[in-house]
Write a structure and sequence with these properties.
two-stranded antiparallel ribbon, 13 helices, 2 strands, 1% strand, membrane, transmembrane helix, Serine incorporator
């Protein structure tokens, strides 16, 4: 029987129940649809954490176990974020442990990943409630651990972005697409560099209006230096990687620099803000919503990109019953993403007071972004230089081996 919609004798369509996407989703045969459900759960957790921070003070104060919170009322919002984050982390780490190393479709772990939604709904509710029953000390300990977990998430995201840029460049310069994509590569690269330069100029105008803004001047000027460094290394004859990848990496680096400066506290004199900056306006609300959605999208896209962490390229073609993406890696990314959104909502400091409708604000957030920018450049440069180093080392080893063989033949001929 054909799968899908089949026409009956009377001319009407009958939907094959077993072939509908709903039936596949219910019967655990649609892992692609399952990932959207996990992303939705992650989005709900983000919204719950935000609600606990901005609107949960009254409810949290009623709970006596929060009375030991250091800093009094102001830190209750941060504790609420950490408790929601811990529940989200527990859910995804359980899923990680139960689905890691799944390789084939229709096996037990695949069905657990893609189905059993009634059981996982109960599990999610339980893991969300349990952190609110834990003492404050354990939550503070989790907050310290979350700094490390959020850093792991940033590193995974960084490698994923660089791998995507490298993959895109390899596709464009391949023998199959080299001639056809040459003009497109030049246009994209030129546009990327123009946007980078315009962004740097605007940051100088907006965030370094006075010569006394030495820190912002340093951040922006150093970003320009890093852009030049990436371009020079990429165009070096021994590397010869073109101008597309440094241009795209420049966009990412300039974006990180902008995010870092935007994270500086509102009272910093080198940030031009209106007198109503202390009040919530529609632009702040839109920015906050976009930031939350960006966190979910970034986590989702990174979670299905497990191939960028394969150190050995598997040349064997995938089989039909292979899983479409790494389930364990997918859930691990979401688990670290739970720690990451907690750090953004509390400004990477559980004792830092955050205004409503703000995210990732504070000096700690600024330096996290700056370090992430510098680390991104270091990783990218290493990905450019490493093949050259290994090639030179392999050539030297080959020369030494040939020399030893010649010496051995010379001694053999002599004696």
């Amino acid at each position: 029987m054909e799968r899908g919609a089949n026409r009956s004798n009377n001319g009407s369509f009958n939907i094959d129940k077993d072939s509908s996407w709903f039936s596949q989703f219910r019967n655990a045969s649609n892992p692609w649809m399952a990932r959207y459900v996990y992303a939705l759960i992650f989005l709900v957790a983000n919204l719950l954490a935000w609600a606990a921070r901005d609107f949960g003070h009254g409810a949290l104060i009623e709970m006596k176990r929060f009375e030991g919170c250091d800093g009094g009322k102001d830190c209750l919002g941060a504790e609420g974020v950490l408790r929601v984050s811990l529940g989200c982390f527990m859910f995804y780490i359980i899923m990680f442990l139960s689905t890691a190393r799944t390789s084939k479709l229709n096996e037990a772990r695949d069905k657990w990943h893609s189905g059993w939604w009634s059981v996982k709904s109960v599990l999610w509710v339980a893991t969300t409630i349990i952190p609110f029953l834990l003492p404050t000390g354990m939550i503070q300990l989790y907050g310290e651990i979350a700094h490390f977990g959020a850093g792991v998430f940033l590193l995974i995201q960084l490698i994923s972005i660089i791998s995507f840029i490298t993959w895109l460049n390899d596709c464009c310069i391949s023998e199959k697409n080299a001639e056809r994509c040459q003009i497109h590569v030049m246009l994209f690269a030129t546009a990327a560099y123009v946007i980078c330069l315009v962004g740097i100029i605007l940051m100088f105008i907006w965030y370094a209006p006075q010569p006394s803004c030495l820190l912002n001047i340093f951040f922006i000027a150093w970003t320009l230096v890093l852009l030049q460094l990436m371009t020079s290394v990429s165009l070096h004859p021994k590397v010869n990687d073109g101008i597309l990848t440094p241009g795209l990496m420049g966009l990412y680096v300039v974006f990180l620099c902008w995010c870092a400066i935007r994270s500086e506290p509102a009272g910093y004199n080198c940030i031009r803000k209106s007198d109503s900056a202390t009040k919530t306006d529609w632009l702040s609300i839109i920015s906050f919503i976009v930031a939350i959605l960006a966190i979910v999208v970034a986590t989702f896209s990174t979670g299905i990109d497990s191939k960028c962490f394969q150190f050995r390229k598997d040349e064997t073609p995938p089989e039909e019953d292979d899983v479409p993406y790494g389930y364990g890696f997918f859930h691990f990314v979401f688990a670290t993403g739970a720690m990451y959104f907690a750090m953004l909502l509390i400004g990477w400091n559980s004792h830092h007071v955050m205004r409503k409708w703000t995210i990732d604000v504070g000096w700690t957030s600024t330096w996290v972004r700056i370090v992430n920018e510098w680390l991104a450049v270091c990783v990218y440069l290493w990905m450019l230089i490493a093949p050259v180093i290994w090639k030179c080392r392999h050539s030297n080893d080959s020369i030494e081996l040939k020399t030893e063989q010649q010496k051995h033949q010379w001694h053999k001929a002599r004696f």
